[in-house]
Amino acid sequence: MGSGSDHVAVVHRYHMVWTEVDVETRLGTLGEIWADDGVYLDPDVPDGVVGRKALSDLIDASVAQFPGLDITATSDVAVLGDRAWYRWRATTRDGETFEGTDFFEFDAEGRIQRLTDFFDP
Q1: Contacts of 28 (CB under 8 A, 6+ apart)
Q2: pLDDT tens, residue by residue, 56-83
Q3: Percent of the chain whose predicted confidence (pLDDT) is above 70
């Protein structure tokens, strides 16, 4: 089972995949940090996407919609057992910003099993 510091490192690696434009590099990282049947949910995909390829495809759509998107953490990663959360801010090339909070659940190997992303109202 992963430790708290391992979970923080996984969250940081996950954060970086959202701005990774090279699909093979992104899938390689997701292969290490995302459970085979890991689920991603957010207000735009409330039913979620399952698996690394589906998440990578969703990230591709984000990269296409917001080229040059900059995502920064606005809080430290907080870990409680096999769960973690952190806050982030995304800034588009034209200066538009939006913020949210990611909640992570990890599997026994320390990979992300479920991620729920809330956008600020």
Answers
A1: none
A2: 999 999 988 888 889 999 999 999 999 9
A3: 98
Task: Please check whether residue 33 is in contact with residue 111, taking contact to mean a CB–CB distance below 8 angstroms.
Answer: yes
- Calculate mean pLDDT across residues 93-105: 95
Structural domain spans, the chain: 4-119
Which is higher by pLDDT, 4 or 29? 29
Angle, CA of 45, 49 and 55, to the nearest 5°: 105
The H or E element spanning position 27 is helix 23-33
Residue 36 CA to residue 70 CA, distance in Å, equals 27
CATH class of 4-119: alpha beta
E strands in 56-96: 70-73, 78-80, 83-91
Q: What residues contact 94, with CB distance under 8 A and at least 6 apart?
A: none
Tokens coding 9: 């490192």
8 Å CB contact between 45 and 115: no
Contact 119, 42 (CB under 8 A): yes
